[in-house]
Amino acid sequence: MSFDAFAEFRMDGHNVIITGGAQNIGAGIAKTLSGAGANVMIADLNGEKAAETADEIARETGNDCRGMACNVTDKTQIDAVVKATVDAFGGISTLVNNVGWGGRQDNPAAIPEDEFIASYKLNTISAYRMSMACLPYLEKAGNASITNSGSFSSAVPAYDILPYATAKAALNQMMVSLAHMLNKRVRVNSILIGTVITEGYASAGITPEMQERMMHPDNLIGHPGRPQDIANAMLWLCSPAAQWVSGQTINVHGGGNVVRLFGE
């Protein structure tokens, strides 16, 4: 029998929740984990799109993939997703806190306080609430893991998206603390994501001109990433291949250093 170097990257028997998985990077993660054999529940603010994406993935991979609406800032809706996932798959072994969003500020010196609070609720508190809601099931699973979609903006000056970058920085601290709190029971990691051009940039106030500049970022590789680049890293961190990895931030950003993400 030949040696299968990819066997530990398989996700057969794993039951996964992915927040913000209806499109863009989240959809890429959902498709990749499903393709590796996992049962996947996509939870997204856009329930119709979540169901549509899940149906497409299920047809392509042949594995069980479902989608439902969820506002991750609402604990009641978080609990509903957790219950639906357990009812459908019998448990939860893997949580991907992928949801996140932040708009660009034209005047960083005049950001309303409410904008900081809303960003913290969406990008940080939601991940904590979802993690705690899944915890009773994660603790019963083998190779249980929580992996967050973080942002490279959390590690460099990024004052054009200050509320978002600040909230993602808080997510980094939370990840490390949870990894220690849940030691020996659940692995917890984060991916710091660099420039990946998606449809979401337009809704964040990133103009076509800015997006064109972002196609040639100042990183070691010289081009922006693809959703698949993030999904590949996510597969490793969620799979048994990374069973000895916890409390880590993995940079997937082309190796670059960015001070102003979007330019003047």
Automatic annotation (TrEMBL):
Keywords: NADP, Oxidoreductase. This is SDR family oxidoreductase. The keyword Zinc-finger does not apply. One of its GO terms (cellular component) is cytosol. GO terms for molecular function: cholate 7-alpha-dehydrogenase (NAD+) activity. PANTHER family: 7-ALPHA-HYDROXYSTEROID DEHYDROGENASE, 7ALPHA-HYDROXYSTEROID DEHYDROGENASE. InterPro entries: NAD(P)-bd_dom_sf, Sc_DH/Rdtase_CS, SDR_fam, Sec_Metab_Biosynth_SDR. It holds the Pfam family adh_short_C2. It comes from Rhodovulum strictum. Belongs to the short-chain dehydrogenases/reductases (SDR) family. SUPFAM superfamilies: NAD(P)-binding Rossmann-fold domains.
